[in-house]
Every structure is written in C-alpha cells, then in structure tokens.
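step: validate -> pass
step: tokenize input -> pass
step: predict -> running
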Amino acid sequence: MDNRIFNINGKGREMLERTLDLALVQANKRGFASWIVDPERGLVLCWLDSAGTPFLGQVGASAVAEMVMEWLKTDKATAVPPGRMCENHHHDGSNSVGWQVYCEDWGYVGANEYAICAVRPAYLWHGK
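step: predict -> pass
step: emit ->
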C-alpha cells in the first residue's frame, strides 16, 4: 500500500510491542531488518538490512520493543523533538512521557523508503 498512515502514541513495553506488530502487519513485512537513529525523527526501523545497522536477521516486534524501550532512556532519544500533538503541552491537566510510533507521507520516514516506522519519545496528555 502506497498511502500507509500510521501514528500511535502510548506508554509501556506491552503496548509498544503490539503497536510494532501492527506496523509490521500494515507494511506487509515479517520482521525488522535494520535500524537508524535520525536526530530529527527518532529510531527508524527498516525492512531492508542494508538500509541501516542490521539486526542479526529479521527480528519480530517483541525483540525490537525491548531494544526500543532501552533506547528511549538514552540522551539521543530525549534529544529528538516530539511530533505534532505529542509536545509537552501546557494545559489544566498533566503530561507523562511515553512514545510515538509513526510513518510519514507515502509510508516513508523522511526520505527513507525502506522504513516500516519510526519511534520517538512523546508526551501523553492527561485531563484533570
């Protein structure tokens, strides 16, 4: 599908694993083959091993979720700017830090046509 739209924010490893699994299904891929850290877009997960730093073969959502949760704790992750509607918005409630899994136009992440999705930190907004 050329007009993939994917944009989910949430919190925790279990929800992240399910979200990554859904991203694989939507992209019609069996697993993740490589990854790239993009300072503007976050951790980009690709289906082609030569598109970035390769995993040891194709890996599923469970293994990648574990890696992503660790990456989200790093300085490189916290330096990635949040996406639209995931900013540290000031309102009459509170915010907590979670993640956003997304792709951009044409199912790409930036100009990367081999991306399944990217992950970046996100603020989750909570009402009163």
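step: describe -> Strands lie at 7-10, 32-38, 42-46, 53-59, 94-102, 115-126.
step: cleanup -> pass
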